[in-house]
User: Which sequence fits this backbone?
């Protein structure tokens, strides 16, 4: 007859402290990566929204110029607020090589002046 003690047949139940710490570390690192990804996405959404609004503002400036039959040369600038974002615009009308045309450049920036790469539209209009 063989006698065994309970100490030798003890089965492991639950997790060790080291296993729990490793699991929590992996979860924490994953959470940090997820938050950084979301922060990056929010920044990209803001930039793309502002870029779309800058394009619409430049289109509005060109349409207004066409409606007023504005063809004189010169430079104008101003600022406009749309949905809590301030846009700074510059419009330049210069003579072109072709006599019956003018060269129009519209530059739109947003946020702090000089902090972003401007959205620039260049086109020609008939006089």
Assistant:
């Amino acid at each position: 007859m063989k006698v065994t003690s309970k100490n030798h047949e003890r089965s492991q139940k639950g997790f060790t402290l080291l296993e729990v710490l490793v699991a929590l570390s992996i979860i924490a690192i994953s959470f940090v990566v997820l938050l950084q990804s979301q922060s990056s996405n929010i920044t990209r959404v803001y930039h793309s929204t502002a870029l779309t609004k800058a394009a619409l503002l430049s289109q509005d400036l060109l349409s207004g110029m066409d409606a007023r039959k504005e063809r004189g040369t010169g430079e104008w600038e101003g600022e406009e607020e749309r949905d809590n974002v301030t846009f700074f615009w510059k419009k330049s009308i210069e003579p072109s090589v072709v006599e019956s045309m003018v060269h129009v450049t519209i530059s739109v920036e947003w946020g702090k002046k000089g902090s972003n790469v401007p959205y620039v539209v260049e086109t020609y209009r008939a006089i």
Summary: The first strand starts at residue 74 and ends at 82. Helices lie at 17-67. The CA atoms of residues 54 and 95 lie 25 Å apart. The chain has a mean pLDDT of 87.
